[in-house]
Amino acid sequence: MAAATARVPLISVNDEIELGRQAQAEVQAQTPRVADAEVNEYVRGIFRQLTRHTTGPRYPYSVSIANYGEINAFSLPGGPVWIHQGALKSAQNESQLAGVLAHEIAHIERRHVARQISKQMVAGGLLALLARVLPNDRSGQIGEVAAGVTAQSVMLKYSRDDERDADREGTRMLRSSGWEARGLADFLDVLRRQQGRDPSSVEVFLSNHPAPAARVAALRAGGLPSGGRRDSDAFRRMQTRLRQLPPPVRMPR
C-alpha cells in the first residue's frame, strides 16, 4: 500500500506551489544573485519561451541566476528554477543553455519533488497525520505537515528515473521551443570534458546529478532529430556581458 501510494503525489499542485514559495524565500535569503539587468532579461526570455511548451500543471514558473562560479542548476517545487553564473559561462551556445533550463523546468512539470516528498511522508510515518488534516481547512496545515520533509528534500538528488525523465521531457521541450534538440546532450558533454580537466568546477553539479556520460548516452540512444536554432548573437552578447561583471563568488561549504 505504501509503495503504491508513494507513486502518486500526496500533495496538491496548490500545496506544492506554497511549499515552493517557502523554499524559494529560504534560498533567496541565502544566495547571492546576478543583478545585471541585461543578463537577467536574456535568461528570462529563454526561460519564458520554454515554459510556453510545458504540458503539465500551470505553475508560476520563475528563474533566478545565482552569482556562483560553480556549474550547477536546480529547481524547487511549484515553479522556481535557479541557474549558476558558472553554468551560463560554460554553455557554448544558446541551445545548450536552453537545454539546462528545460531539464530543470521538466522536473517541476513532471512533479518529481512532489513525488519525492510523498515517498518521504510515507516512509516517515506522516501519512496518518496528513490524512487527518486533508478533510479540513488546509490553509497552512500542509506546510506544517511537510515543511520538515521539504527542507531536506528539495536539494537532494533525484532518482535516476526522474533524471532520465527530465532529460527526455527537457529535450522535447527544447525542440518544441525551436532550439536544436541536442542542446542538453551537448551541454552534458561539455560537463563530461570539464570533469576531466577541472573536477572541482563540476563537483556541485555531480553531487546532485548523475554522471553526465550515462545521460548523454541515453539521450543519443533515444535519437536526437536534427534542425532547430543552435546559437544567437544575443547569447554571445550575454556571455560578453558576464565577462565584464565582477567575478562570481564561491559557494559556501
**Order of SSEs, N→C?**
HHHEEEHHHHHHHHHH
Q: Which stretches are low in confidence, meaning pLDDT under 50 for 5 or more residues running?
A: 1-6, 132-141, 149-153
Mean pLDDT: 84
Structural class: mainly alpha
Radius of gyration: 18 Å
Helical percentage: 55-70%
Strand content: 5-15%
Textual characterization of the structure:
With 253 residues, the protein is mainly alpha-helical. The protein is 60% helix and 5% strand. The protein has one domain (11-113, 151-224, 232-244). The protein is built from 13 helices and three strands. Strands 1-3-2 form a three-stranded mixed beta sheet, with helices on both faces. The longest helix has 18 residues, at 13-30. The radius of gyration is 18 Å and the shape is globular. The model is unreliable at 1-6, 132-141 and 149-153 (pLDDT under 50).
Summarize the structure.
The protein is mainly alpha-helical and 253 residues long. The chain has helices at residues 2-6, 13-30, 37-51, 85-90, 94-109, 112-123, 127-133, 141-153, 160-176, 183-197, 203-208, 212-221, 233-244; strands spanning 62-66, 73-75, 80-84.
What structural keywords apply?
3-stranded mixed sheet; globular; 3 strands; 60% helix; 253 residues; mainly alpha; single chain
Helices and strands in order:
Blueprint: H1 2-6, H2 13-30, H3 37-51, E1 62-66, E2 73-75, E3 80-84, H4 85-90, H5 94-109, H6 112-123, H7 127-133, H8 141-153, H9 160-176, H10 183-197, H11 203-208, H12 212-221, H13 233-244
Parallel strand pairs: 1-3
Antiparallel strand pairs: 2-3
Helix pairs in contact: 2-8, 3-5, 5-9, 5-10, 6-8, 10-12
